[in-house]
Amino acid sequence: MPSGYKHGDTPAKAMVRGTISYLESQGLPVNKSAIFRHFDLSRSQGYAALNTSSTPKSDDPEWGETRGRPSKIAESDLQKMEQILWDEKYEDVSLNWSGLAREAGLEMNCNRRTLHRAMGTLGYRRCLVCGRTHTHKRHREKRCDFARKALRTYPLKEDWRRIRFSGELHFGFGLDGRMRLAPRSGEKLCGGCEQEMGNVWPRDIRRLHAWAAVGYGFKSELVFYDPSTSPKGNGAMSMADYCDKVLDKVVKPWLTASGPLSFVLEEDADVFAHGSASKINLAQQWKDTHGLRCSFSCGESPDLSPLESLWPPNKQWTSDLLKDWEDDTLKQAAREAWAGLSQERVNMWVDAMPQRLQLVVELNGSMVSW
Ligand SMILES: [Zn+2]
């Protein structure tokens, strides 16, 4: 089950929690009794709804929470490091985690994993509101290599029309019908945009995970799944589910319908980079057996994926469908958002792929805006 919602929960109880967590996140006064009354709950029902085991997990940096980060690092230290990652001065410096901590003047010793969890990637920053980007030196080199290779393999827009870009979409649901797509690990708000009212997403009351693929004249259905229970899961799909729910049930019929030469499945390098070796082999066996042609995305490059590029500003919007937070309602709202990704815009985006890669090379690997 997604965090924040349990069996036996009623929408009213989830709303009570959502309301209180929102008020707390904004530093506003919280009058619990008044909130319980508003949702027609008795005091005991109200307090039962607040029992801590069911409050949303807040220490998950993949979700771009700016509050409730792991307490091992002070918020002020995180901010100093974040500023460095946005600072032009450092764009040409190959910083690693300890270098970053040193530059920020941090005196504690934090291990790499803790910093990585708290900060997201070191490779790039892209502001979800104003579009400002920073791409760090080592990441720029990697992106240039990828772009040159991709242009050699697929020089023409017709080549890109055969690619089906695939990946996982993590939907978050907030108050008042608000929805968002979880940002990628370098997608944040820049200092200025973070100060503006309404840009910071307070908290997900519920989450929903789906796999999807899109390409020229092509759009899959959303394949909903329960996230892997592994500690590093972060909403990722388990390999068993990937083989069964995606490759076998969804991709196999495509192969049957149009033949293995008709398309190439692009997979998200970031998701697979975190998988164990055995995970990769299972899927690899399937691909070999069925003749599925695959390639990996560039990695940490949301500018090179239509699945990341074509959403509303700040990857947030309001859905009229969200009258409650029942499973079916959330799925319906996610399907509606997916339907809103117009095929025409996807087609234009795909056809611009050779130009976009050329631009990556010309800009020495910097992120390309769209
Ligand atoms: Zn900004």
TrEMBL record:
Protein's name according to its UniProt entry: Transposase Tc1-like domain-containing protein
Domain of life: Eukaryota
Biased composition (Basic and acidic residues): 57-74
Species of origin: Hypocrea virens (strain Gv29-8 / FGSC 10586)
One GO MF term: nucleic acid binding
Gene3D superfamilies assigned to the protein according to its UniProt record, in alphabetical order: Ribonuclease H-like superfamily/Ribonuclease H
Renumbered residue ranges of the record's region Disordered: 49-74
InterPro entries registered for this protein in UniProt: RNaseH_sf (IPR036397)
